[in-house]
Amino acid sequence: xxxxxxxxxxxxxGAQRGREMGYPTxxxxxxxxxxxxxxxxxxxxxxxxxxxxxxxxxxGTNPQFEGTERTVEAYAIDRVDxxxxxxxxxxxxxxxxxxxxxxxxxxxxxxRMAEDVRVAKELLG
Length: 125
Ligand code: FMN
Known about the structure:
The protein is of the alpha+beta class. 18% of the residues lie in helices and 38% in strands. It contains two helices and six strands, in the order βαβββββα. The radius of gyration is 13 Å and the shape is globular. Bound molecules: flavin mononucleotide.
């Protein structure tokens, strides 16, 4: 495309488990017919009021928690104190990292997420 694919929307409350897990995410509510990338984990940017923050992005139903709704969530790397509820944000998708998985344990997921963040940082420079 020559530029990263962008998804925009208002940040809404998710299942609220991200903060507890150490990876609070901005759950972006998208309009119907939005072109959402395939389920998976991506490196990209969370853009808030003109500021681009390196992000690890998750698209999918969160199989670890037997979710049914597809969500677009962005974790702004190392920015665990952000409060973005109600803000209109953009998510720019730079690179696909892996598919959504269900791990045997929550620790398994958390270990992989730490690795995702490492990979995303590297890809984003
Ligand atoms: N959820 C899964 O079920 N499987 C995954 O493989 C998975 N990978 C993720 C990778 C990253 C980098 C991030 C930020 C999230 C990932 N998630 C995955 C989604 C988390 O389960 C989700 O962010 C968490 O449950 C918090 O959800 P909440 O914001 O609705 O509270």
